[in-house]
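Protocol step 4 of 5: obtain the predicted structure for the target chain.
Materials: sequence only (see below). No template structures provided, no constraints applied. The aim of this step is simply to have a reference model before the mutagenesis design in step 5. Sequence pasted as it appears in the construct record:
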Amino acid sequence: MTTTATNAMRATLLGLAVSLTAAPLAAPNAAMAQGLFDPVIKVDGAAITRYELDQRAKLLKLLRAPADPTRLAREQLIEDRLKATAGDAQGVVISDEQILAGMKNFAAQGGLEADQMITLLERGGVSKETFEAFVRSGLIWREVTQARFGARVSVSEADLQRARAANTDGTGIRVLLSEIIIPFEGAGEEQVMARARQIADLTSTAAFSAQARQVSATQTRDAGGLLPWQAVTNLPPVLRPLVLGLAPGEVTDPLPLDGAVALFQLRDIEETDTPERAYSAIEYAAYYIPGGRTPAALSRAAQVAAQTDTCDDLYGIAKGQPANVLERGTKAPGEIPNDIAISLSRLDPGEVSYDVTRANGQTLVLLMMCGRNNTPEVAAPAGEVGEDGQAAAPDQTEQLSQQIAARRLESFADGYLERLKAEARIIEY
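Step 4 output (structure tokens):
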């Protein structure tokens, strides 16, 4: 689950308490009914039962998750199995005491005790065991990511200076990047990742652009992957900490996407007089074209791009076709898949890109930016109250360092999880 989704759910716990306090106890569910414990999904042989899927969906619904509960439950449980396997491989063991502490911490986000949280969830038909499994998975993943990537996460004084400049009122940060996105289809993931690791060691902008012209699948390929100046807040959440951690000429570590891997080189970075603004939501449309990156599909995408100026125009393009050929919606930046978010970051309203695929490369996705909802940057949190009752000044450098480190660790973890999903054998019944 993304940090955005987790925070959104935690923020609703107090509302959960209010809405369920007066609710009658749910009738005992038919846990022993025939077929309830049959597997509906297997992840590398590990079963997910109908009961687990139903329970997780109920939990997410009670927590008002910002997505369809059934779909999100499926995604989370698949990820839980992958996280558990990764934890076993690294010898991670979570004790009962850790689980209890995790449940207390989660409940405290809504001003509840763990026992109160459990009682309220049970009133909504969610068992204590389901809540425990939800917390256990998060604890396992924290241990796994810290063990794998903790030593790779460091914050330099230059990183802090850039972040301070980015958060200063009246100023902003913009970056000049080059990009390479290499699809896995054709060469295969192992070979592509090996090539990506070689590219990540480059420090020459000319060498990076030469690689972009050879292997990149983006529309910037012929231009050597060169992107124009863009505000750092335009970048997707997964990319911002990676870019702010670079010096000019350096390249990000390979960033796994859905069926591809991305690399970005920082060419330049500068402070501007324009205040930065955060985007609370992004509205975009996705039009699906069969054929993947074949000449026919790319030609069709170019034709659609030439015939449309706004997202509303896509309805005319999709007229008479199945309803699922066109999707349009508004999402928080952290909820948008990384490959789509990266593609959208280059676009202004009405502009399109078509370098993302789905269905193992068999479907080309034409993306159009409909609009961004701007909100001011949130101020830094206030300090804690000291013994004298006065607000204690926070150690801002330490806070900022922790924030940068946490974002980098999360980006590594997200990339690792995407790779695990890409390598897993997932069977649905």
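Step 4 remarks: The first strand starts at residue 39 and ends at 43. Residues 396-423 form the longest helix (28 residues).
Proceed to step 5.
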